[in-house]
Amino acid sequence: MRALVVDHSAPGRLALGTVADPEPGPDEALVRVAAISLNYGELPTNTGAAEGVVPGWDAAGVVERAASGGRGPQPGDRVVTRGRGGGWAELRAVHVDELAVLPDAVGFTTAAALPVAGVTALRALRVVGVRPGLRVVVTGASGGVGRFAVQLARLAGAEVYALVGSAARGEGLAALGADHVLTGAAEIERPVDAVLDNVGGPLLSELLGHLAPEGVVASIGATSGQPAPIHPYQLVPNRLTLRGVKLGDGIGHDLAHLVRLVADGRLEASVDRVADWSEAGKLATALLNREVRGKAVLTIG
Fold first, then answer.
1. If you average pLDDT over residues 77-104, what whole number do you get?
2. What is Dmax (Cα atoms) for the chain?
3. Which of 84, 205, 268, 301 falls 20 to 30 Å from 174 in CA-CA distance?
4. 27 pLDDT band (50/70/90 cuts)?
5. Contacts for 26 with CB less than 8 Å, ≥ 6 apart
6. Are 75 and 59 in a shared domain?
7. Whether residues 110 and 130 fall in one domain
8. Looking at the predicted structure, is the pLDDT value of residue 267 above 60?
9. Can you give the three-state secondary structure of the chain, one letter per residue?
């Protein structure tokens, strides 16, 4: 089958190649992939990525063969899937607990944007205990996780502060539900209750000074690539909590919840770029250069 493989000589370190078909386990469905999305954290950005490996966390398509163990969707069902790799290929073997069936109202391009970014945002908001009236800061709000977090926090009734790197990056976030679109922590005028941090670095340290007593930080990522100088005195006096967020496994239920929100028109996937997978290197480079607002999706032609 054809697949996108790590090729350190190609643009974006990705190239189309040929690999063996996957062999599904008893609890895995075989899916013919129609669309995939790119996430910053899975891109082969250095020579440490093994040559010839098929990356890919998010993929949507049609079940070609049901799991032999009898669980999960049936052949012909349209699904969105998440795995730890192997998604950027014509065929994917995926555990039935890591997928959700799609209604006709949700297309493959939209669905492919949901798994990692959408479920990460959903689970991070649970970590901070999102609820009506909570004041929540989302850093990196123009990115994939950030745009989902803004919408989901607003749906939960929170007051949302979307923090972005520039005014241009903040365009459209108010329409998604952000009450405040800011370009720096100094613009926060009153204490906030929670931070969903995708950036890390000095920004995270600065935001600790804007947290109300009992405030919670959910650390999702560190796209700044810089250390965050955090001193104990920043955490102890107000009993602040800093928690790391990992996606984890068994996301099927949460993924189905997001699919329903999209089908009902309550959640937008915010797909900014769509291209044929032959353009993978170009799109990966654009994502790394912070030229994408929201999600980047490739269709498999």
1. 97
2. 58
3. 205
4. very high
5. 67, 68, 69
6. yes
7. no
8. yes
9. CEEEEECCCCHHHEEEEECCCCCCCCCEEEEEEEEEEECHHHCCCCCCCCCCCCCCCEEEEEEEECCCCCCCCCCCCEEEEECCCCCCECEEEEEHHHEEECCCCCCHHHHHCCHHHHHHHHHHHHHCCCCCCCEEEEECCCEHHHHHHHHHHHHCCCEEEEECCCCCCCCCHHHHCCCEEECCHHHCCCCEEEEEECCCHHHHHHHHCCEEEEEEEEECCCCCCCCCCCCHHHHCCCCCEEEECCCCCCCHHHHHHHHHHHHCCCCCCCEEEEEEHHHHHHHHHHHHCCCCCEEEEEECC
What is the end-to-end Cα distance of the chain in Å, rounded? Answer: 13
Q: Which two tokens stand for residue 249?
A: 């496994």
Three-class SS of 133-202: CCEEEEECCCEHHHHHHHHHHHHCCCEEEEECCCCCCCCCHHHHCCCEEECCHHHCCCCEEEEEECCCHH
Q: Are residues 179 and 224 in the same domain?
A: yes
Q: How many CB atoms are closer than 10 A to CB 147?
A: 30
131 and 217 share one domain: yes
Q: Which domain holds residue 281?
A: 2-114+269-299
At position 108, the amino acid (one-letter code) is: F
C-alpha span between 36 and 301 (Å, rounded): 12
Residue 207 and residue 292 in one domain: no
Q: Angle at the Cα of 300 (from 295 to 301), degrees rounded to 5?
A: 135
Cα separation, 12 vs 286, whole angstroms:
9
Rounded Cα–Cα distance for residues 295 and 145 (Å): 9
The pair of three-digit structure tokens given for residue 208, joined into one six-digit string? 């600790």
pTM of this structure: 0.93
